[in-house]
Amino acid sequence: METNTSFSWKEFVKAGLLGGAVAVLLSLVGMVAAFSGRYIVSGVFTMGQVLFIAPILLSTYAALRRNRQLTNSNLFMAGLLSGLVGSAILALLVLIGSMVNLRAMLINASPELYGILTFGRGTGLGIVILLGLGLLIGAAAAGFLLLPDRIRHALTQAIIWVLLIGLLRDLIVTVSFRWGPLSSIVRQLFAVSGLTIIGALILFLLVGGVSYWRWGRPKRDAAESFNQQRPAARWLTIGITGLILLFLPLILGTFFSEILDNVSMYILMGLGLNIVVGFAGLLDLGYVAFFAIGAYTIGILTSPELGIATMSWWEALPFALLASFLAGFVLGLPVLKMRGDYLAIVTLGFGEIVRLLVLSDWLRPWLGGSQGIQRIAQPSIGPLVLNTQQELYYLFLIGLGLVAFIAWRLKDSRLGRSWMALREDEDVAMAMGINHVSTKLLAFATGALFSGLAGAIFAAKLTSVYPHSMNFLVSINVLSLIIIGGMGSIPGVFIGALVLIAAPDLLREFAEFRYLVYGALLVVMMLTRPEGLWPEKRRQLELHEEEPAVVPAAD
Amino acid sequence: MTLLVAKNVTKRFGGLVALNKIDIEMKDNAIQSIIGPNGAGKTTFFNCVTGFYTPEEGDILLGEHNITGLSPDRVTQLGISRTYQNIRLFKNMTSVENILVGMHPHLKAGLIGGIFRGPLTRKEEAEALKEARRILNFVGLKGRGDMMAKNLPYGEQRRLEIGRALASKPKLLLLDEPTAGMNPSETHEMMNFIRHLRDELGVTILLIEHQMRVVMGISELISVLDFGEKIAEGTPVEIQNNPHVIEAYLGRGAASGLVQAAA
């Protein structure tokens, strides 16, 4: 490419402003301060610092990459400029903060924040350090761009893994304590917070080395390589995965098993909503209603409090499933003719109706009103009552196995194709002989059934149900995890739940900013990767081994 | 044998009469066309036949079935399928899947069959897949089966749409401007393909078409619509010399000029 010596300063000033603005935003919403106690590498740097450095670094890097044709010296100049502008904005925040009391309006603009931003060196020296850091960031971004691809890739991988492992320190250390010999190694790698310097170095070199070595080797995606294995090897993979899943609660311990249960519950709901939204394209914002119906049916039928019935959990389960399945039908009937936005609004209303009904005084004798229902029976197998988080996990696991199997089978069936055809073009689907009434109702009802199952297990998990657990936000959470994972993709539901449900639970600091991060993540995903983290893949149906593969011409 | 009889079909939208007492008859194994200026009511007629619209008056018979007012899925099950003026494939599904959806009325598996995938369902799916591949070859899309429909080039999308329509084993195939947006050689190819369809599969074909070369080249009978009225019907030669048709297309002045010139 032709080297261009002149470049527009404006673009890099803009990049710096953008990065700086994001850093200021993260500071002022309190994320920087909240994460400043969490070291990534103990004694070296914290997640808080990453949060105000990374935006400037990434924005500068992105701008530089768009202008790759610049000469090396110009690239460095541009990087320095962008980095300096970015850090100058942060410095400005510190400067204004030192003169004016911003806390009246921005409660997070605290001395503690300024302390973090100035590395505890006071306003004057701190600002100089901050600006210097900005120049360093700019130079690093430019230098990074000039590295050979292979090294850059290895470095990126190493940095990401160090950040990730550093953040997940609590999980890893707690789990390792249960394994005697392992814990002594782990203790060398992790400090009280984050990795030790040695641990970080080892991890960095290991990941960097491996990804350097793997560069250029043909990559196969997980599903494909799984399908190419010989049957024996395939069963081995399934067996090992099964064993890990079976012993997961024992490996993780009580606290993390609770998170695991939570994630499983959301996956269960996600798989159901994925049928409604992902497969059939019916945007349902009131999905929590079916969850509520499942949970409350169990409550009504098992709790001695209401005096309606005192079944065992297992006896009540079929009723709960039937009730949610039928509720899916009932909701489906009035909305058959609605599409898109209208459907979303009506289903949203349905979700609220169910929540208000269970909250109402009118139905209090049967549904417990705002007090909810307590003393719900827990499932038992023989003499064993499943009442700990670890035991209930197995219930979730069985439910998940069943539901995932059903979703996977339906996806490639005649019914699944009909759902997708309806999603793609309802009129044409009808012209193909698809009965849109029964097909849509089946989508609603199947989705509702899965959600009802999640609700039933949820009731057993808490032994109580309250109206406030049937919040609209549950529907939004489930919908978000489908979108993040990839609409219509079954593995995507698992990934989405791990990112959206497990991550905030694992990092306590995140919980406070959960919805902020959701929102930002959704916007970023929609802009950069609208198909989701693990996009749906259509099954290959035409080419078989006996037929020579014709590579379609790319045009 | 007559396959399709449309008698006295009238369709109104509010005050606008989109179709006014239209009579069209089709013989088994025929290739017929409907032509007319924009807004003449051609696609409205298709929509009435396929069950998207219910005509206010008149009857539509397919063989011995009265299909007036039936829902689109019922009409398809009885043996009519169609393509669309602006291609309407299931864009995010593969070519094979598009054709499999087209076979929907001939397959049986439901919710239970889909989940348990018993021997009957497996056999049905395997046969459907084989048939889908055969149709794919027939419309000349061999090797494109696993591509997303949206990624196919324009001409192939047209052919896939016809393949999808054929998958329901129709007696009557309605093609809405199958050569729209094609260059002369592609158009020529499509004409041959339509004839081939009729000769090989014995499907009766009703076309809406704007390109006169196509219409005159392959139709056995042409019906001309203008402002919802049928103004003429006949063989290509008759239609070419019909003053009403010339008037509808070129205006009154041009028509009288032509008639005078001919005289």
Structural category of chain B is alpha/beta
Rg calculated over all Cα atoms of chain A? 27 Å
Estimate the helix proportion of chain A, in percent: over 70%
Mean pLDDT of chain B: 91
- Biggest sheet overview of chain A: 2 strands, antiparallel
Rough shape of chain A? Answer: globular
Summing up helix and strand content along with how strands pair, one would put the structural category of chain A as: mainly alpha
Query: Largest interface here, residues on each chain?
Result: A-B, 34 and 53 residues
Radius of gyration of chain B: 20 Å
Strand residue percentage of chain A? under 5%
Number of helices of chain B: 11
CATH superfamily of the largest domain in chain B: P-loop containing nucleotide triphosphate hydrolases
Number of strands of chain B: 10
Description:
- The complex is a heterodimer of chains A (555) and B (263).
- Chain A has 555 residues and is mainly α.
- Among the domains of chain A are: 8-146, no CATH class; 257-467, no CATH class.
- Helix content of chain A is 70%, strand content 2%.
- Chain A has helices spanning 9-28, 31-34, 47-66, 72-99, 111-117, 123-146, 149-167, 169-176, 180-189, 197-214, 222-228, 231-279, 288-302, 313-332, 340-359, 364-367, 389-411, 414-424, 426-431, 436-462, 472-485, 490-506, 508-512, 514-528; strands spanning 39-41, 45-46, 380-381, 384-385.
- In chain A, the strands form 2 sheets. A two-stranded antiparallel ribbon of chain A has the order 1-2. A two-stranded antiparallel ribbon of chain A has the order 3-4.
- In chain A, a hairpin with a 2-residue loop joins strand 3 (380-381) and strand 4 (384-385).
- The two termini of chain A are 24 Å apart.
- Chain B has 263 residues and is α/β, with parallel strands linked by helices.
- The model of chain B has no long low-confidence stretch (mean pLDDT 91).
- Chain B folds into 2 domains: 1-79 and 170-263, Rossmann fold (3-Layer(aba) Sandwich), CATH 3.40.50; 90-166, no CATH class.
- Chain B contains 11 helices and 10 strands.
- In chain B, the strands form 2 sheets. A 6-stranded mixed β-sheet of chain B has the order 6-7-8-3-9-10, sandwiched between helices. Chain B has a 4-stranded antiparallel β-sheet with strand order 2-1-4-5, with helices on one face.
- The longest helix of chain B is centred in the middle third of the chain and has 20 residues, at 119-138.
